[in-house]
Amino acid sequence: MYEIKICHLYPDLLNLYGDYGNIQALVRRLEWRGINVSVHPISIGDPFLPDAYDIVFMGGGPTNEQEILHKDLLGLKKAPLIEAVENDTVFLCICGGYQLMGQYYKLSDGTELECLGAMNHWTIDHEKRMTGNLIFEIEGLKQHPDSLVVGFENHSGKTYLGDGVLPLGKVLYGKGNNGEDGYEGARYRNVYCSYSHGSLLPKNPGLTDEIITLAIKRKYKDFVSLQPLNDHIETAARENLIKRFLNTPNSPK
Ligand code: GLN
User: Fold this and answer.
1) 96 CB under 6 A from ligand 1?
2) Can you give the residue ranges of every domain in the chain?
3) Inter-axis angle of helices 78-86 and 63-74, to 10 degrees?
4) Is 7 a catalytic residue?
5) Which atom from ligand 1 is nearest to the alpha carbon of 197?
6) Which CATH number does 3-246 carry?
7) What is the pTM of this model?
């Protein structure tokens, strides 16, 4: 019997714009396949055990909350979190959580918030917030009827990717990482980062299943693939947004 353990990092602090919906999407799509799943909230003062979890989720939060947890993140949790990343644990990090995985976050007053250093990206605060619907394309993503991902962004930080870090996708609508290079999010080993709140996963079942599949295959060598689910509601929601914002010739009639 397969079992997946999910660590929810700082659920009391980093949980903006419904980011908890990502946990719910992971749990439900595992349960619908009869796979045992448990969620483990880990916050300030709690130890993070590097080999205890299959998926780690860190959501978004206002800059002041990122500063509250900053000492704990860089103290108690830094080494085991980096160890988990390097051991190919699957991570999903959204917005503030994404920023904290990088090298530093330069705040509007010019101070630099040292971040985890688990990935080679950095963020620079910007006076104008980047807010609105976000649609981006993940090459090779198996998601009906296209490889598009829909979401919502709200951030003042502009993130730039360094060597060794790939973008998660190409922006088709919205700003993405910085509104300059046309990229959204980041990928490093089994870490998925995105600015997309929304929350991201409920409307993007193909991406949810990609993350789940990666975590199960890493733990159970005999695992082949997930049973397909009837995603007509999720697909209708996505198609509606794609039609509304992209109005592409191949968008659903
Ligand atoms: N405080 C960060 C920013 O504004 C992250 C915000 C968030 O997580 N939505 O860029």
Assistant:
1) yes
2) 3-246
3) 90
4) no
5) 9
6) 3.40.50.880
7) 0.95
Q: According to the 3-state scheme, what is the secondary structure of 78-108?
A: HHHHHHHHHCCCEEEEECHHHHHCCCEEECC
SS3 of residue 33 by DSSP: coil
Note the pLDDT tens digit of each residue in 165-218.
Answer: 999 999 999 999 999 999 999 999 999 999 999 789 999 999 999 999 999 999
- The owner of tokens 């799509």 is 29
Q: Which helix (H) or strand (E) holds 196?
A: none
| Residue partners of 12: CB distance under 8 A and separation at least 6 | 41, 43
- Which residues, 6 or more positions from 119, have their beta carbon under 8 angstroms from its beta carbon? 85, 101, 102, 103, 165, 186, 188, 191, 193
| 242: its two tokens | 């794609």
Q: Is the CB of 61 inside a 6 Å radius of any atom of ligand 1?
A: yes
How crowded is residue 112: how many other Cβ atoms within 10 Å of its Cβ? 13
